[in-house]
Write a structure and sequence with these properties.
Elements (H helix, E strand, L loop, with lengths): L1 E5 L4 H12 L10 H9 L1 H4 L6 E9 L2 E11 L7 E4 L12 E2 L4 H11 L10 E8 L3 H10 L5 E9 L2 E3 L4 H6 L3 H15 L5 E5 L6 H12 L3 H6 L2 H17 L2 E8 L2 E11 L2 E9 L8 H15 L4 E3 L6 H5 L6 E8 L1
Parallel strand pairs: 4-6, 12-13
Antiparallel strand pairs: 1-2, 2-3, 3-4, 3-5, 6-14, 7-14, 8-13, 9-10, 10-11, 11-12
């Protein structure tokens, strides 16, 4: 494999990268070049300083793209200057390097050998966040570290619960705790029998998208912690992410309206036969109707009926996720120091 450093995105690389991602060992939406372009424009919604530098590392075999390590250099980490995965840390739930399963071991081995020789500012660590605990990259990075002159530290970061879907709403309900099954049915029925107009829908009109995203962020802002999170840079990031996802055919931005007002919203990705729940917002004025639970129920019913395999809550161990039947997995950090 021949390794090369790129200091910017390009349309030609994007096309190859997208094709490779479709075959990658870990093909998560946060590794799509369209998503990461927007992330880089705002440095993760303002998480990273302007002096950070892009460091896309590609590997080719006989001219064919066989691996991408979407990295950036930053001087500001707890241990000094480091190379990190684009998307780190706060707003991209799952990250990794990109290679087909049959190429991954060679790519990781070659990447660790090549990185010290690339034309980059000084760095002391390759600090990789948000790798899924079942990612084959995780074990490879740890096992190859010593031979390449690194020491490896692996850390469990966060819960990342998910639900395997049976493909049938009633079968799904029958598989969760009886008390929680009753609660979900009761809350959905209460709204349906309340005699007030309501509907849930997905926002897929390109001309209305910006307004719908603004409405979604208004729902998020009802929570004080999320309101503080929504800085101008973060709002720009969410707008870009929604536009990219719509154009890529994977946006699932859904709302529950009650009496003509948005009561709850979920920003998700619909790709790889799973629904990935990215963020949510509720209007407490409608708490009597439990709009968050009801909307989640409709989303799970839709995902089952549409034959999705997994409902992925992504990072966070909020209790309601487990009440809906989620089981745990984790995202990890592997830090390789030279």
């Amino acid at each position: 494999m021949k390794f090369e450093l790129h200091r910017g995105f390009s349309e030609s690389l994007d096309e190859e990268w997208t094709r490779l991602l479709d075959q990658a060992a870990v093909p998560v939406p946060f590794l799509h070049p369209g998503y990461l372009r927007g992330w880089w424009q705002t440095r993760g919604g303002g998480e990273w300083p302007p002096e950070a530098q892009l460091a896309l590392v590609t590997a080719r075999r006989e001219g064919e793209l066989v691996g991408v390590a979407p990295l950036f250099w930053t001087p500001r980490t707890e241990g000094g200057a480091a190379l990190m995965l684009l998307g780190s840390v706060e707003i991209s739930d799952y990250l990794d390097v990109i290679a087909r399963p049959q190429d991954l071991a060679e790519f990781v081995r070659g990447l660790l050998a090549a990185l010290p020789g690339l034309d980059l500012p000084a760095w002391s660590a390759l600090d990789l966040y948000n790798l899924l605990d079942d990612s084959p990259s995780l074990a490879l990075l740890e096992s190859e570290a010593a031979a390449a002159g690194y020491t490896a530290q692996v850390e469990r970061l966060q819960h990342s619960p998910f639900i395997r879907l049976p493909g049938d709403w009633e079968t799904y309900l029958a598989g969760i705790d009886k008390k929680q099954r009753h609660e979900i049915r009761r809350k959905m029925r209460r709204l349906e029998e309340a005699g007030v107009p309501f509907r849930w829908y997905t926002a897929d009109d390109p001309e209305r998208l910006a307004a719908e995203v603004d409405d979604f962020m208004a729902l998020m802002s009802q929570d004080a912690e999320k309101a503080a999170f929504l800085t101008p840079a973060m709002r720009q990031h969410l707008h870009h992410t929604a536009r990219w996802a719509l154009e890529a055919g994977c946006l699932h931005l859904s709302f529950l309206e009650i009496e003509g007002h948005k009561a709850a919203g979920y920003f998700s990705f619909d790709t790889l036969n799973r629904l990935w729940v990215y963020n949510s917002g509720m209007d407490p004025a409608f708490n009597a109707y439990s709009p968050g639970w009801v909307m989640l129920g409709y989303l799970l019913q839709w995902a089952n009926e549409q034959g999705r395999d997994v409902f992925d809550f992504m990072r966070g161990d909020e209790g309601y996720k487990y009440k809906f039947g989620a089981v745990d997995r984790f995202v990890m950090r592997v830090r390789l120091e030279r």
